[in-house]
Amino acid sequence: MVKIECTEEAKFWLKDIHDYIAQDNKRIAKKITKEIYSKVQILATFPQIGYAYRNDDNLEIRILLYGHYGIAYLIKDTNTIFVLGVFHGALDIKRYLK
Q1: Residues of the chain with pLDDT under 50
Q2: Using the 8-state DSSP alphabet, how is residue 43 labeled?
Q3: pTM for this entry
Q4: Which of 24, 33, 68, 93 has its CB surrounded by the most CB atoms within 10 Å?
């Protein structure tokens, strides 16, 4: 099974998503962040389920979709995945993943 690690930036962005939604509805904010977390757990079994964003020089970055959000992750090796960030679909992901 693959080990999943979240970068501090990914944790910050997920909290930011939660806090933004919670301004209107705390219950929905908690539900969405839990569902994003659950979606990430799928990567432990199916690490290549997301679509390829970048795959060059041994750098495999993929995007897993959940609703309006994209979960960017790096497949470091066969045993480790790093979640790089959780992005709203309206954001230009190219600004963040260079």
Answers
A1: none
A2: G
A3: 0.86
A4: 33
